[in-house]
Amino acid sequence: MRPTLLLLPALALAAAIPAAHAQQCTNAVAVIEHAYAARPADVLPDRAGWRREPYAGTCRIWPAHPELTLLAVPVWNDRDSLPDAPDGDLELMVVDTASATPRAWSVLRGAVDSDAVRFDGVTLDTARYRLDDAHWTFGVRTRFTGSSSPNPYSETRLRLLAYAPGHLQMLTQPISIDIAQGEWDTRCAGEFRTIARTLAVGPPRPHGFADLIVREREVERRSALRGDQCVDTERPAIQRSYRLRHDGTAYPVLDALSPY
To answer: Is 211 exposed, middle or buried (0-12, 13-18, 19+ CB in 10 A)?
Structure first.
């Protein structure tokens, strides 16, 4: 059973959290609980039948803008989900680091839905994605894993969001940034594939957001018994690159980069 979010009075939580923890974001659960307890009623309101999971959430002080702290918290649909295939959203908040006052917020619908693969964690990506002069951009990475031993699978999905005071704008649908999958006999013989992708920002554009450059490296490996030894054979890596251009609303994501 996932632990639920206990909404204590804001003053009690503020007194319970050492200032150093709030500044460094070393205690994510305490920072998340404080931010939710202190938020106004119209910011990410509670939903009947939904349950927040702060222990699976994360926070990060934005290195380029340390006056701001980023929060990401899974919220599970306990009312309508199947037990083995829970549906869930990811709530995001940008808060003032010193006071926990919300500066912007959003909900990523279905971002942690779990069916064939299950949600396995979230991290905040604060690389310097400088896409235009009007917004600050950060990423949200969600991890998923499969449960089959003969068919191992793991995947990390990246979404980019642009921040301006009072507003969060979704820039991309999820991009599969890392994939590892295979099929084997659970002893040695099998075939495996990994795909690793990195994002770079193209030159500035006179109007709108810069292009995103996605670079990909795919490696296939085969394992087989030779005598009493398990021997790996790796094929030469395949390199690819993709260019994503903002269409005025978002960056359309190619099917080749979308989650499996």
So the answer is: middle
Residues 6+ apart with CB under 8 A from 37: 7, 8, 9, 10, 13
Reduce the DSSP state of residue 31 to 3 states and report it: helix
- CA–CA distance, 31 with 12 (Å, rounded to integer): 13
Query: What CA–CA distance (Å, rounded) separates 156 from 141?
Result: 6
Condensed to tens digits (0 to 9), the pLDDT of residues 20-71 reads 344 468 899 999 999 999 999 999 999 999 999 999 999 999 999 999 999 9
Flag the least confident range among 49-53, 87-91, 115-119, 232-236.
115-119
DSSP conformation letters of 104-142:
EEEEETTTT--SSSEEEEEEEE-------SS-EEEEEEE
- Angstrom distance (rounded) from CA 18 to CA 114: 35
CA distance 171 to 160: 5
The mean pLDDT value of the chain amounts to: 89
Distances (CA, A) of 134 to 28, 34, 159, 209, 247: 29, 30, 19, 9, 17
Find all residues with CB under 8 Å of 48, minimum gap 6, and list them.
79
Structure tokens at 96: 């003032």
- pTM, 2 dp: 0.88
Residues in a beta bridge with 195: 179, 218
